[in-house]
Amino acid sequence: MRLLSKRQLKELVLYSPQHIARLEKAGTFPLRVILGPNRVGWVEAEVLDWLQERLDCREAPERHS
């Protein structure tokens, strides 16, 4: 299992830390893991699954014959 830091998460998801916190609170983003008083991380597999769900929801481009 690999944990992502805030910096790694921001590079992968491209959301601000404030927006990530709002999504977590709403229950629509994987929850952070508290590692210590000033350190948190996110389970990489959970974040990648969340991203894959977004990719799967995209509309398929129309095919031109």
From TrEMBL:
Please tell me the species this chain comes from.
Albidovulum sediminis
Protein name, entry field: AlpA family phage regulatory protein
